[in-house]
Amino acid sequence: MLGKNTRSIGALSLGLVLAVAIYLVPGMTGIADAKEAFAEQVFAEEAFAKEVQAEEAVEGEGEPEIEWSQDVFYKDWEGNPLKGPVSGHPAPELGPTDYNTYEFAPSRIILWVANQQHLYFGSFVLAVPIFCMIIEFIGIRVKDEDPVMAAKYDRLAHDLMKVSLTAYSWTAILGGVLLFTFITLFPGFFKYMAGIFRPVMHVYALMFLAESGVLYVYYYGWDKMKEDKFLKWVHCSLSVLLNLIGTVLMYLANSWATFMQAPGGIDSQGRFLGNIWHVIHSTLWNPVGVHRILGNIVFGGGIVGAYAAYHYLTAKNEEERAHYDWVCYVAMFIAIFGLIPLPFAGYWLMKEVYAFRQQMGITLMGGIMAWLFIIQAVMIGLLFFGANSYLHNGMSRVKGSHRYMKYCKYMVLLLICCFTMWMTPHTIVMTPAELKAMGGAQHPVVGHFGVMSAKNTAVNLMITCTVLCFLLYQRANKKITVPWATVGNCWITAIFIGAAANIIFLGVYGYFLPANQRVGLSVPQVTSTLTTLFAGTAINISMFKDSESYGDIQWGTQSKVGTYAIFLLAISFTWLMGLMGYIRSAVRLFWHVTEVVRDNSADAYTLTIGEAGKMLTFNALFVWVQFVVVFWVGSLTAKKIPAKAPEGVPVPAQQQQ
Amino acid sequence: MNKSLVSFLVFVVGLAVFHNAIFPIFTPKEVGWILNRYVYFLLFVAYLIITNLALKLKPPIAMMGMFVWLIGFYFYKFVLYPPIPWTLFITYMVMWSIGTFLFISQDPETFREFRKPIVKTIVGEYKLARIIVFTALPILVGMATYNAIYPSYLEPVELRTVHPAPPATTKVHGKTYPLESTNNPFRVDEQDNYKDSFPFLDADKQEYMKYVTEGGTIFFQNCHYCHGDQLNGLGMFSHVFNPTPANFIDPGTIAMLQEAFLFWRVSKGGPGLPNESTPWSSAMPPWEEHLKTEEIWKVILFEYWYTGWHPRTFGTESSTAGGGE
User: Fold this and answer.
1) Measured between CA atoms, how close is B46 to chain A, in angstroms?
2) Which of A64, A204, B113, B236 gives a 20 to 30 Å CA spacing to B274?
């Protein structure tokens, strides 16, 4: 997809699709339920065995009595609360002495900034190794056929890693700042968390050590392991290891946040019940993890894209322009690939939140946080607009794209209509006079767009439209010559029309179903959308075999509007990430740990929308200032190697044959 | 004749004729088919496209962008009925404007073409246009400022949470009800099963219909003055309240909620709302002071029966509370 050999890269593209599917499918199908059912059984047996042991122990002479208590979340096979031996202290009743403050800002705000900055950087340094792994792998695969292109990929991966290295130290520093902020401002709460997560924190620290070790070997061994084929593969494998450790690190850190939001493994007094896995693996752990992995990829793609876009706009010569145009393309490709499944991971997370506490779900979607979700809807719409604008503008510089450019306006129209539906609020802000003119609180036409049936339909159509746009981009300069071209085109058309019809039908049907059944309709809707993504891409790529090219892509000719769209995407990602993080955390309202540790500080209030917006904007701007500094530091060591002009302008695989 | 000018005239004259002559035909004073006005709008758009294609006018992209934007404006301002509130209008127009921008900037060629007249106006190649634009701009800004600071006597709008998160439990007539697990007692049969599939189709069940009828009687004695005899929130007193009474026909109200949620809302009324839902602005009395517990449940039963909605249940989803593992 990003290199010369279409066939092998086509397979890679499919691999990428499948990799995303692997993350998502467990959440979308019943596998997760089956796993949970199995886990329930295991836990029930385990609990039973422990109970018997405990009884025996009690009956025996001189044995100390073990106190057993009920878990706040986990249940046994019969639906009764799981029991576990009390192994920790009860949650403290926090008082004024458990909180420290500064004069200049509320403690909660300071902690928020520290946390958010660390998360932004953490997200970036976790995403970059994923890119490097993919890009280096592509470089190795195309080396035999196109050494120039392979060198280009290798250089890109190496450059990204260099930036990541600086960002890595920065992340660690911000992590330290966060830790000290937490300990100094919320000592009482930190003591409780440390009591529960003590072993996890140590494992986390050790994993950090392992991550650093692998990272340094990976980066500093780059040149030494570059030439030998075997060593290069070993080097690439190191990136896989790096990503695995990074993922474990992230999941461990996630467990603290998910425990605070939806605790498990403790009793109602907050006493640890002896099973650390229960505490880690609370109900939101998996969806938050998947959502964050995808989010990291999108965020990282946005930042790399913005970095490349800046260099593209300020490039001094054609070669540099061509290079950074190409880097923009690679970054956007990865970001959009992460963006497409991201809403589904979000749905899964929300489903689990509702499952944990319906109240928490209502607070998010219909209650005090609902207006923030409206803002989120606007931001997501902007992302899709930005992505499509980039694709349209990128397509226009490909020879042969005139065949498809005429469809762009219809796609824009569809996007706008869907977006209108997507962000029409159920409760409209209006004056009494307007209310009177409308004849009631609900508008008889657009009022129907305020419920989930319409929203699901709109977002699925928007994603399907983006997928279609991407497929057209892929084939923009190709003259399809396979004998089954007509059949293939018919299949693609049928898949898209079928998916759209199914999505719309289910959307309308949802209005006639009880709410609990209506929720289930989102699964076939999502399946339709994913079918267009997987099957559409697969058929499309298969049709490129032996295709003729209308001409090479003109790297370095990307329009300014398309380039600015990348900045829009990057800033939107940053802001949106902060917004959703705030919502996820703030939904605990006046709890540190939901229903277990109450927040008794002076800051235990929910911010107004305006105040929250200001903080989010501050965080987004602050992190971008830091990114600029990090990129600048990274560029200090850059050696100005004159880029070797490849013969002919480099062309991504799908534009070639 | 200049083709751009012809295209412009086709738009302006066409709009004038359509709006003044044809629109009234499609919107007679007697209530007609609800989609009439939208059919009219599609006809107008079709007229524009066909005329431009037939006369091979090919207006410049800047003009096309303007047409597209104006069509959106015309639709949201004049065609969509009843008129939408200002906040929604602005939202829609921002979106439509973004869409128009995407349309004109879809490739560098069209964008360059779009910019051309703007640049020419600014640098002074189009002298008359420059004079008009730079004279009109301060006047427009002045008018906008005047409008913005002119005192308005309308009460300010406020963001209000319509479906607040309910408390975990509610105490009514001395008994505490956990909201997540409380069901309507009149919907539970002999086997203690919660009837969760369209009981209103089961109309021959006389016992069930008896409760529904009793609920209806209570509704018309107490509730319909505000919530309306069609349960659409348009009762005889409804127009004097802000916010207006809930519209139960709307798919976004009771259709999305558990019966226990309604039980809490009916029992506690406006004063029982949390702060984000502005309890001070709700006129609904706490009905626990006027109705018995079973009467409240019967009214709820009637509301679902009448509207055809089904109360939300969570039993059939994998989301049984706390049942993760």
Assistant:
1) 15
2) B236
- The single-letter code of the amino acid at B31 is V
How crowded is residue B207: how many other Cβ atoms within 10 Å of its Cβ?
A: 9
Report the C-alpha gap between A172 and A177 in whole angstroms: 9
Rounded Cα distance between A526 and A21, Å, is 12
| Distance (Å, whole) CA B184 – CA B178 | 12
| E strand or H helix that includes residue A469 | helix A452-474
Ramachandran class of A442: left when φ > 0, alpha when ψ lies in -120 to 50, beta otherwise? beta
Residue for token pair 């809707």: A525
Rg of chain B over all Cα atoms, to the nearest angstrom: 28
Q: Which residues of A touch B170 (CB under 8 A)?
A: none
- Minimum distance, in Å, between the CA of residue B319 and any CA atom of chain A: 4
Containing structural domain, residue B137: 3-149
Beta bridge partners of A597: A593
Q: Strands A81-85 and A478-479, how do they pair?
A: unpaired
In a domain, B34, yes or no: yes
Number of neighbouring beta carbons within 10 Å of residue A502 = 17
Residue numbers in A near B79 (CB within 8 A) = none
In a domain, B155, yes or no: no
The answer as to whether B163 is a domain residue is: no
Answer whether B152 touches A (CB < 8 Å). no
State the smallest CA–CA distance between residue B155 and chain A in angstroms: 7
Residues B235 and B127 in one domain: no
Please check whether residue B30 lies inside any domain of the structure.
yes
Give the closest residue to A203 by CA, choosing from A172, A244, A175, A245.
A245
Assess whether B139 and B28 both reside in one domain. Answer: yes
Would you state the structure tokens that stand for residue B190, as one six-digit string? 């002999």
Q: What is the pTM of this model?
A: 0.81
Which of A409, A456, A512, A521 is the mutation pick for testing B, counting most B CBs within 10 A? Answer: A409
**ipTM summary value:** 0.80
Q: Is B247 on the interface with A (CB under 8 A)?
A: yes
Count of domains in chain B? 2
